[in-house]
Amino acid sequence: MDSCSTRKIVVVKLGGSILTDENSYREAARFLARRLHRCSREQFVVVVSARKGVTDELEQLARRITNYPSQRTLDLLWATG
């Protein structure tokens, strides 16, 4: 039985290390489209991290507001941007 004969959920995480510019977003979309075309029975859950450098910028912003931001605040910034 080939792997496309059964329906399955595939989780794909696209991290900031590959999302560096507009072209990298297009490449990520092409990757997903090729994968879906190859096996249309797959259902994707795509998790996208912040673009490269954005998480660091958010932390710097939090530390400009207060020298000791709470971990909960940092978690919220990183999770929602």
Compose a concise summary of this entry.
The protein is of the alpha+beta class and 81 residues long. It has helices spanning 22-38, 54-65, 71-80; strands spanning 8-14, 42-48. Helix content is 48%, strand content 17%.
Number of domains: 2
What order do the helices and strands follow? EHEHH
Uncertain spans: none
Largest beta-sheet characterization: 2 strands, parallel
Please report the number of helical segments: 3
Structural class by helix and strand composition: alpha+beta
Separation of the first and last Cα atoms: 43 Å
Specify Rg, calculated over alpha carbons: 17 Å
Mean pLDDT: 82
Q: Note the overall shape.
A: elongated
Q: Which strand order spans the largest sheet, edge to edge or round the barrel?
A: 1-2
Question: Can you tell me about this structure?
Answer:
The chain is of the alpha+beta class. It folds into two domains: 1-49, no CATH class; 52-81. It has three helices and two strands, in the order βαβαα. Strands 1-2 form a two-stranded parallel sheet. Helix 2 (54-65) runs antiparallel to helix 3. The chain is elongated, with a radius of gyration of 17 Å. The termini are far apart. The model has no long low-confidence stretch (mean pLDDT 82).
What are its keywords?
single chain, 81 residues, alpha+beta, 2 domains, two-stranded parallel sheet, 48% helix, elongated
How do the strands and helices of this protein lay out in sequence?
Blueprint: E1 8-14, H1 22-38, E2 42-48, H2 54-65, H3 71-80
Parallel strand pairs: 1-2
Helix pairs in contact: 2-3
